[in-house]
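dude i think i finally got it to work??
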Amino acid sequence: TDSVLNVGKKVDEPTDSSLSKTSLLTGSYTDAFSVNRPYEMFKVEYGDSSPTFIQWIPNSTATSAGAVLIFLPYEGISWTGLNIDSTWVAKGAGTQADVDGPYYNASASSTIFFSPITPAQSAAEGVPYSYNGLHVAVVFGRYYSGGDVQNDIDDVKNGMRFLHSQNLVDKSKIGLYSGSWGGMGVLHAVAQLGESYKPKAISVIYPVSDAKKLHSYVNTTVPTATSTQATIDAYTTFFDPYIRRINKATESLLGSTSRYDEFSHSKLSSITSNIFVAHDDWDTLVPAGHTQDLLTTIGSTKKITYFHRHGTTVNFDSFARDHTQATETMAREGVMSWNYTFLINELTSSAQTRYSIYNSTKTVAQFSHTLTRKNAGSNTAFYNKVLEQLCEPNLSFIDGDGIYSASGSDLLFTLMNNYYQGGWAANGPAACTKLTTNPPF
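look at this
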């Protein structure tokens, strides 16, 4: 089992000269655009922290460019050379006992879902960025292997150190992406590393960002919001593996009122990177209010957000435990297109031709839903900044089926004229001008 770090271990870290990179595997895969892309798998070690495992996918031209770090906290990998990984991969996908998790108790601890991933599958996560000439590093958190929350944060920190050690990476154009539990890794890694490793951009979707708030949510908010013991028990069971990983990292402060402060929003105020965040008001795992508090705390001046609004509040007794609900869904495909767009705009030159990938059906559904909520009186002003991304220079969109493509401004023109107001604009450039002079949302 990987070793774990105590709270505050980040202080007086060793110098970058102690970064160790060991190549474990090389290979290639053919991406969705029929491009064969090589990759290399590394074990990265730094100081006395546990090893971090990273997939490096350089751009196809071997030229200097920006890079995207994708943090996958859960996925199982078999190429590390460690018994713990080969043992877990042999189990196959499915619900498994959290046998290597901290404080595991066979009679009391909850299970976790395990999903192995091949190098080709993990590399495919970076296709939208690779297509735009960016380098990609996939960092694996290996949730199943027994680390704690600080261990996940350290994995992202080592991923950032790895990118800074690559000569081909333009250090001024590094972006990070993850979601849910991965948000803790990304956000707190950026804060702990400080200004010398400041990324240009951060993109997180329904992120866990404050362990203290999460602990309070599970133990106070949910029990207060329901009178059904079965619901309370279901939430306690679901969050048990997460709370154990938080408690392990903070065990030296057991009994202290400041126990969870190290992983709270107060530690993120130094973040000034440009940021995109998406969240759903009906998220029953991470309340959208946590993200609103996050955005108030961080010092970023450029904040682009998408909040999926609803006409009613969460019903803990009837809603699924998920980041979005089956009805009025956030439609992850629609949200991911904004993630791609944000990072591509931030990390590539406006002088080059650049492409984002989207799903036209999901994008229209999202636009229509936001318009419905606007008309019902919800605060949807954030959507103007989301749409403004379509007006960035030299940006085109490829539909998920790979057939239809259009410039960002023409996509805006189509959305506004067809779903907002007929004849709203004469063409794409006119739509972009009107969007900024007379915001519709």
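The first strand starts at residue 20 and ends at 30.
im so relieved honestly
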